[in-house]
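Quick check before the chapter quiz. The format below is the same one you will see on the exam, so make sure you can read both the input and the output lines.
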Amino acid sequence: MRSFASDNNASVHPLVMQAVTYANKDHAVGYGADEFTAAATTLFKREFGPEAEPFLVFNGTGANSIALQAITRPYNSIVSASTAHIYVDECGAPVKMTGCQITPIETPDGKLTPQMIEPHLHTLGIEHHSQPGAVYISQTTELGTVYTIDEVKALADFVHSHGMRFHMDGARLSNACAAAGCTLREMTSDAGVDILSFGGTKNGMMMGEAVVALRADIADELKYIRKQSAQLASKMRYLATQWVPYFDGLWLDNALHANNMATRLAEILARIPGVKFTQKVESNQIFCILPAEVLARLRKHYFFYMWNEAAGEARFVTSWDTTTEDLDAFSQILSL
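Here is the expected output.
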């Protein structure tokens, strides 16, 4: 089966699989006291800066919930876009695990700005209201758009000036940095992000994400929060070893390929009479409104998600393993 539904559906990159096989030998001390986790930690510090402290976890929802627990108290609220993963797609896990309310803000493109957040801070210091304690952004956003480094810095400065913490969900951070032509550190640590949920599962890894504390004072309690959140792997080496090839250039190669495939797929879709792109194509996600007959034809051959069924808006996602043959076949079906 070939699909354009999600990069979660893609296969595991052979180099990642090779790394897992390499780690599958002899015995290794559990819970992260092994050579593979040590190697991964060194690489995280190389990529994000010497203060970076990674805590490997099983999945993205766990990573977001742990990261937000580390920077909030139950009387806080968390500000996010209304399309944010923590607000829409995590079954209330961050709310349950932090005790915080989420304050959703409507945006045209999934991106927050200081001007959008400002009106929601009027309750600061008033004991009758949840206190805004953290701002959450996704990079890329759930709409495939990408924050520039300057936009991230502006948010970080604003957030910190109000005594709050800044969390970036980087499930597709690799795609964002590939699109922006920058390093992982330039988009995160150097831009003022306090804590990061970093994922490779959507970009060629098998499983596992990382909570990365980018400020030394945040890291102290994370190991306890991870354990209490049921996200501490006993056989940590299998999560850790995947990051070795990932940080050896694989993250960028895979993300560039996925982004390039999306650009080419958008060019194919643009040839359809009546098509309307609802977001800029900046990474590996495409959002567009298509005629009903075109959607019906594509559904016979491909699995993809309808973002807004009533409007005929579909989402197409390309992956590290999307091929030119996939795009040629897609084009041929459109021409039938």
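If your answer matched, good. The chain has two domains: 13-247, 249-334.
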